[in-house]
Structure formats: structure tokens, C-alpha cells
Amino acid sequence: MAADWLVGGGELGALIRAKDWAATPLGPIDDWPQSLRSCISHLLPSRAQIVLFWGPEFVTVYNDAYRPVFGGKHPRVLGLPGRESWSELWDMLQPLLAGVVNTGDAFWAKDLMFMIERHGYVEETYFDVSYDPVRDETGRVGGVFCIVSETTGRVVGERRLAALRDLGRVSNGATSAGDIFRNSATVLENYGKDVPFTALYSWDAAAGTARLEAASGIAAGDAGAPLLIDATNRHQSWPLGSDAEIVLAEPPADVDLPRGPWPEPVKHAAILKLATRANETYGYLVCGLSARRKFDDDYRDFVRLVGANISGALAGVRALEDERRRAEQLAELDRAKTAFFSNVSHEFRTPLTLMLGPLEDLLSRSESLPPDDRALLAVTQRNGVRLLRLVNTLLDFARIEAGRAQASYQPTDLCVLTAELASNFRSACERVGISLVVDCPQLPEPIYVDREMWEKIVLNLLSNAFKFTFEGEIAIRIRDAGSGIDLRHGDMADAFPELDGTVDVVVGNPPYIPLEAYESVEAEARDHDPHLALFSGEDGLDALRVLEGVAARLLRPGGVVGAEHADVQGESAPGVFTRAGRWSDVRDHHDLAGRPRWTTARLAR
Questions:
Q1: 301: helix, coil or strand?
Q2: Could you list the residue range(s) of the whole structural domain that residue 365 is in?
Q3: Number of Cα atoms under 13 Å in the Cβ half of residue 416
């Protein structure tokens, strides 16, 4: 009779047909009501995971697709009451089933957590469930038709992915390896279902010792997280020091590890080496493994990625630490250089001053000296004065580097001062047939500048122009730009527009110097006067380097200018203008042939 309606169904169909149902609460199969037969006929061929709980005792009948849910309990649980087939979760399941029977309303849930024992241990699992009432011939609810879909892999995978995502942020704001260790422990403490506890150790390869840097889910200094692991206690603790990527370890017999969110204690830990790609060991991660998840390939990959994320963060902060040390070393070298220049300048100036005094006395008595001797003394005195001037300039540079330069701002008729300074070059220009154009109309009001600094800048700009101009003219112009002063030299009067609210410095590559001859010309100029600098887009020198290390610093009121070849530093460095602000908009300008000619910079007030 059973074969008339109970056909197919794979393994479960065969087991149902072969089972002695008379020994179960359902009774002989021939006495089953039509409603029960219909439910079983629907569930057996289905590919969905379906289990039927029937009668007052919720007797269990399921299909082939549901077998993995029972795991090792199959086929023993077929026909057993629900309290026996799902004994480990009956306290949770029974109210759900009873609620469907009593109310006649279906129950539905997504990613519902069940703690089931199907492989010899209590396992954390998740299911989408739909519990639907089945009415019997009396019209009452005779059973619950349960369609489930296991989502354990997705839920656990998403949780682990979130942990890895958060670990990817542990380097935010970290300035040391200790910060990385502590941030990592803080993140992992939020994911106790996968890592019930962690202990992160730094590693001293020379001493063969590991020092606890941070821990989560366990107190620092506990038996599972000793503060120091070395040769004396390694056999009583974790076997750190291995080159293996992952080492599975058990705690000593007398050590109870934390339980995490589960009632069962952790029985195993994974030990991961935190190292660079070059196999340089930073430390080790001792990671407790969940008692309710099998350490399968997915779990192993997750733990490996945890270690990789922490290793990557440690590598990044180690690179920052190395860069910081290099910067500190460079700063120390810079301080030593500044101190050296300062000391050398003082040592040079003292004997020079002592030498120039007697020379000036001798020259003052020139009527008693032979003409040839007087000429030699004059040359000696003139070059001594020049050398003293260079030493003073070097001392100015040392003061600026050390941040001790003081600017003295005074209201100045800038046009008159600039014209007077430029007039020093007029006779020299006329001797070589070069026109000197000084275009400095009267300004509406005095300008506050440090006159000594302004003198150095103007004289050296004109000196540069004179050295490298062989024909034509040299021009220096000052314009009122509204709220600023526009200083220009060279034949660039129409090359750049007026820029309101800025002070402009424009330095050019003289158009009559071929670019291919630039390096030799510059080298010759530097041999003649090592303090002068020529400016060109060709070799990347920027317009702010008016003097190599001297006036360049005077023109650096602060901030990085934002161009690849400009290295302006020091927001408190003195400037020429009292309302000077920050250099910006450094630009290289090219001629029609595409060759670099001029470099300009703005100094916003």
C-alpha cells in the first residue's frame, strides 16, 4: 500500500519506506492521514532543505537536501521526536514550533543562529527559515513544514571580511609599531566569535625573545599571554620563533584559555609570524581559535590574512620610522652645517679685520710709499675687503639657517633707493656698450622694507644680469600693483601682467645665452663669484634662489610653494616685506621655441 503513494525521494525515500513506523509516535504508515502523506510527497523530491515536524511530539521527517543539516545524526534521527532529534537546541526550537501550531501563523527569519551538534562538537550555524503550519483533516494544525537554507558560510564570511576591513585601517594615525599592535588588538577584540583572544608580540631576533605588546580577550600577563617569552619559559608557553607561516598549538595542560563569547574554552591557537616579504620578522600573533568553528581552509585563510594585514601595517609604519630617522639625521647634519658656517665665519672675520686695519693705515700714509708698493697694497686691501664681505654674507646665511636673522623694517622711498643702487652699475654698463634702464617712478607712499636685505637682492640681481649680458640692455622696473610692489629686471616688462595683492619676483634666463652653453656659463660665473646663481627652467633652479643660500633665504617668508623644484621652508623665517605672506604660483615660462626663459613666483601679502 505504501508504494502506491510513497515513490522516489532518493535515500530518504528508501529509508522512509523501509522504516518500521509502527514503533514511532506516527504509527503504521498505512494509518497516516492524507495531509501527512501529501506533505511527505512534496518534500521528498524537492531540492530545497525541508524538514517536517508532525504531531504533538513533532516527529521528524526530512529529505535528502536536509541531510547535511543533521550531519552525523543522519539517519538515526529519522522518525524521532523533535526534542530528541534536536536536543541541543530544543529550548530555542520548541517555542518557535509551538507558536506556529498554537497561532496558525507562519514564522520567518533571516540568518537565524542555531547552535547545533552535527559533527561531534557544538557548531555556530546560521539559517534562513520559513516555518509554515500544515492543517490536518480536522482543520487544526497537525504539523510544521519547515523550509530552511543554511547561510553559515555567508554570515561568517561577511563577518571575517569586516574584520579584515577594519584591520586595514589600523595604520591610520599610527606612528610606531606599538601603535599598530595596540590598534590591531582593539579591532580583533570586536570579533571574538572568530578570534576569542589574541596576544601580539614583538620579536628580538638577536636575543630570541618575544615581548607582549598588546592583547585582546585575555589579560596581559595571564598564562595564555605571558609578558615575555624566551628560552626559559618557551616550553611552558607558546612556541614562538618558528619560520612557519602558521603553527597550530595547544596550551599546557594546566592552562585554561579564555572562552570568548562561547561557554566552551578555547582548545587551540594559531601562531602567525608577522614578517616582511624579505622574511624580516617583526613579531608574532597568537590567535585563539573558536571552539564552535572547525579550523578548515576558510578559517586558515582568514587567520593568514589577519596576519598579513598586521604585517603590512607594521611594514608601513616601519618605513615611516625609518624616514623619520633619516629626516632627523638630515636635520642634525643641517644644524651641524649651520654651526660650522657660523664658527668658520667668525674665525675668518677676526683675522681679516686684524689684517685690514694695518693695510688701511699703510695706505693712509701712501705719500711715503713707492708707487709700485702702494699699488700692491691697494690690491691687497681691496681683495681683503671683498673677502670680508663674502665672509659677512656667509655669516648672514648661517644666521638665517639658524633662524636668528633679524630684519629691521623702515619706511623707505623704494624707488629712490633702487635707483641709487642701480646707478652703481651705470658706468660699468656704459664701458661695455650696454644700456642700463632704471624705470622707477615715484610710489604713492613709503614701503616698509629691510634696506640691507633689499640692497643685497637688487645688487645681486643686477650683478647677475651684467655678467651674462653681452649686448642690448639691462632694465629694472618697479610698479605699484595696488596692494603690492612689482619688482622686475630684464626685458620682461610686457611678459607678465600686473598681479594685484602680490609681490612678484621674476628672474629670467637671458635670451642671448644658448641653452646648450648654459652649464658652462654658469660654472664660469660661479668660479668668479660662488654666491651668484643663474636661473633657468632647464636645470630646475627656481626663481626664489636669487643667491645660492644667502638672498634666497631672505626671500623665504614661509611655506612650501607647491612646485616640484621649490623647497621653501620655515614659516617664521624673516622676509623683505613686513606684510609678506607665502610664496605661491611658481611658474616656468617658455619662448615660442618651447625653451625655458623665465621663472616667476608670487608672494601674497
A1: helix
A2: 326-401
A3: 7
Task: Report d(CA 89, CA 100) in Å as an integer.
Answer: 17
Residue type, 399: R
- Minimal CA–CA distance to 197: which of 245, 269, 102, 147? 269
Tell me: do 161 and 126 sit in the same domain.
no
The domain spanning residue 363 has which CATH number?
Answer: 1.10.287
- Per the model's pLDDT, the better-predicted residue between 171 and 482 turns out to be 171
The confidence score (pLDDT) of residue 576 equals 28
Contact 417, 451 (CB under 8 A): yes
CATH of the domain at 135: 3.30.450.20
User: Residue 152's pLDDT band (boundaries 50, 70, 90)?
Assistant: very high
- pLDDT of 403 reads 65
Question: Do 12 and 134 have their domain in common?
Answer: yes
Looking at the fold, whether 317 and 434 belong to one and the same domain comes out as no
106 and 207 inside one domain: no
Asked whether 370 and 539 are in contact (CB, 8 A), the reply is no
- What CATH number is associated with residue 211? 3.30.450.40
Q: Identify the pLDDT of residue 515.
A: 37
Grid cell 592583547 — which residue? 215
Do 312 and 164 share a structural domain? yes
By C-alpha distance, which of 13, 85, 97 is closest to 55? Answer: 97
| Overall average pLDDT of the 541-559 stretch | 32
CATH (domain of 547): 3.30.565.10
Cα separation, 282 vs 291, whole angstroms: 29
CA angle (249, 178, 190) in 5-degree steps: 60
SS3 (DSSP) at 416: helix
Q: 262 phi and psi, to 5 degrees?
A: -105, 155
How do residues 81-133 score in pLDDT, each as one tens digit?
Answer: 999 999 999 999 999 999 999 999 999 999 999 999 999 899 999 999 999 99
Per the rule left: phi > 0, alpha: psi between -120 and 50, beta: everything else, 81 is beta
Cα angle, residue 7 at apex, residues 5 and 13 outer, rounded to 5°: 120
Q: 179 and 165: one domain?
A: yes
Number of structural domains found in the chain: 4
pTM higher than the cut 0.70: no
- Please state, as a whole number, how many other Cβ atoms lie within 10 Å of the Cβ of residue 256: 11
- Neighbouring CB atoms inside 10 A of 29's CB total 20
In 46-89, alpha helices (H) = 67-70, 82-85
For residue 245, give the DSSP letter: S
Of 278, 294, 321, which marks where a domain is finished?
A: 321
Read off the C-alpha cell for 19: 522504516
Do 175 and 138 fall into the same domain? no
How do residues 339-392 score in pLDDT, each as one tens digit? 776 676 667 777 777 778 888 877 777 677 788 877 888 888 888 887 877 777
Of the residues 321, 339, 368, which one is the last residue of a structural domain? Answer: 321
Q: Kindly report the CA angle at 519 between 517 and 522, in degrees rounded to 5?
A: 105
**Do 214 and 181 fall within a single domain?**
yes
